[in-house]
Design a protein that fits this description.
Blueprint (H helix, E strand, L loop, with lengths): L4 E5 L2 E6 L10 H11 L10 H4 L11 E3 L1 H14 L2 H4 L3 E3 L16 E7 L4 E7 L3 E7 L1 E7 L2 E6 L3 E4 L5 E4 L6 E7 L1 H6 L5 E3 L13 H6 L19 E2 L1 H12 L10 E4 L14 E7 L8 E3 L3 E7 L2 E5 L2 E5 L4 E4 L5 E5 L3 E7 L1 H7 L4 E3 L2
This protein binds 2,5-dihydroxybenzoic acid (GTQ).
The site of 2,5-dihydroxybenzoic acid (GTQ) has 9 residues, from strand 5 and strand 12.
Length: 365
Amino acid sequence: MLFVSILTIMGLSIAGEQSMSTGAAETPARKAFYEKIDGRNLTALWTVMGALITPEPRSRCVPFGWRFADIREAMIEAGGLITAKEAERRVLILENPGLRGESKITTSLYCGVQLVLPGEVAPAHRHSQSALRFVMEGSGAHTAVGGERTRMEVGDFVITPSGAWHDHGNETDRPMFWLDGLDIPIVQFFDASFVEHHNADEQLITRPEGDALARYGANMLPVDRRRGAITSPIFNYPYVRTREALEQMRRAEAWDPCHGLKMRYINPETGDHAMPTIGAFMQLLPKGFVTAPYRSTDATVFSPVEGRGRSRIGETVIEWGPQDVFVVPSWKPVVHEADEDAVVFSYSDRPIHEKLGFFREMRGA
Ligand code: GTQ
């Protein structure tokens, strides 16, 4: 007898599949048994094993893209409805269509777009979650971390370490938009969330602007500094530097078939990723470049800074331009195609995959 069921196990829907991973049929006696043990909070492994231990990643996260113009329009409307101070953070969450209601763009990562209007302050707080900012529009609004302010420009990669006080402000005359990438679902999974609110809207500034970058981002380290922290001491990786490095490297014409030219942001004290839970990357795809198919276990969020093109993710094709956001789920093959020189930022949970031995990638398939 073919047993067809619709099961939802740990949020994983399996429709029309044999529920018994062993292929064992459901007899009346077995069914009665399952019902009996269910009342004791017991479940027979052989009825769920196939859904738990899968031959390859099966994710509810789906390929999807958001147009910046659409996000921007909604953000401006939000700007008329609530202040940054009242909201604490005026952010619209980019929710994966396969994960609605969970505040997730991938199974393990959060993505939002934050707006700070001229004259506003997003008040100081600190939390267990680590955050990255990727600047989308505006010039010169600031964030403060560790007693230092940094003014932000489009394409800058800015980080807020776990447990660090941070507040944002905009003393310019233009709105500022940035993408927020946080490890909220990871902290949630481990039930490890703490937050504190500062007694002042803005933290005390104790260091001159640019101090961290000079101290840690000039291929030198303070002489007596011995061991690096798990998060990079640099908290703004300016786009001008990143762009210049990519431009210099392109002259070598050493393209990776799957990535074009792809670099990862590092913690200069350890050589590891800049953040413990989130890996961040910037890649250059020259005009006309079509990548070889690539898949990896780390579901990845992409946001182009410059250029236009499209990405085929499995059967889904997503057209993209500057500041759009799209997501490639775990183990879905992706092919990128650049119509113009394109510079594309991305982030994923790769540091965790690597440390726990889960990371796998496949090139050309
Ligand atoms: O800027 O501190 O998108 O705490 C979500 C939570 C941004 C932030 C978010 C946050 C922040």
